[in-house]
Specification:
The protein has 230 residues and is α+β, with helices and mostly antiparallel strands. It has helices spanning 8-13, 22-31, 86-91, 112-121, 124-149, 152-167, 179-186, 190-202, 218-225; strands spanning 2-4, 33-37, 42-44, 52-58, 61-66, 72-78, 83-84, 98-101, 105-111, 172-174, 206-209, 212-215. The model has no long low-confidence stretch (mean pLDDT 86).
Length: 230
């Protein structure tokens, strides 16, 4: 990891801070540190003290847990403009999972002590962040629901529709993780992902070309999410 000088103007353009006064943004800029991480580097490990939180500027980070036998379960993939480690930093609890970079990543780091001191003086800073954390909570609620209540086809269909909503697509999406990582995210194995995609393709629901997926029938995908067998 190496430190990087922060692009001061860029902070004000992040959705998290767009509604803040210039004075509040300036105060934030004085406490943040720009950091750069190479691919496959650990940013923090489960149980580490939460010394602060990150906002990802470029790159992607996988947040995951490891079972006793070393099996990896991806919980979330954090991309640009998203928070990493914020809940633990606010609460003062250790990080509950591991975070590794999936590619070269640049982030802003906000030290916990300085940030909380600033929030006490400028409470408006935290309001936009609360909305972001609420959306993250909704995401994890859906993850738990999918893993515990849905069969694998329903989990995959839900994820494809999520990618479509996230990218505001009409038809085409790109799966920006490997098949092994997607399988880990959905609690299955790569062979099962391939088999389900093949079945969906045979039914005319979608077509696959590498990592690009063209969704021909989003209603059919939603029906699978709702429990219809594939």
């Amino acid at each position: 990891m190496k430190k990087e000088s922060a692009d001061r103007g860029r902070l004000a353009r992040l959705p998290l801070f767009q509604n803040l006064s210039d004075e509040a943004v300036s105060k934030l800029e004085h406490i943040l540190a720009g950091r750069e991480f190479p691919k496959n580097m650990t940013i923090f490990s489960e149980g580490d003290e939460a010394a602060g939180f990150y906002i990802i500027c470029r790159g992607r980070v996988k947040v995951f847990k490891l079972s006793a036998d070393g099996k990896e379960q991806i919980l979330h993939i954090v991309g640009p403009k998203e928070l990493l480690g914020a809940v633990s930093a606010f609460a003062g609890n250790p990080y509950p999972a591991n975070a590794d970079t999936m590619e070269k990543t640049v982030a802003y780091f906000f030290p916990r002590r300085e940030f909380l001191a600033l929030v006490r003086k400028e409470p408006s800073i935290v309001m936009n962040m609360m909305a972001n954390l609420a959306m993250r909570l909704q995401h994890f609620t859906r993850v738990i629901e999918n893993l515990s209540l849905k069969e694998v086809p329903g989990r995959l269909a839900a994820y494809l529709l999520y990618l479509c909503r996230r990218s505001e697509c009409r038809e085409s999406i790109e799966i920006d993780v490997s098949k092994a990582q997607l399988a880990s995210l959905l609690g299955t194995i790569p062979e099962t992902i391939s088999r389900i995609l093949r079945k969906m393709s045979e039914r005319g629901i979608l077509s696959v070309s590498g990592r690009k997926v063209k969704l021909h029938n989003k209603k059919a995908l939603q029906d699978i999410v709702n429990g219809e067998s594939l």
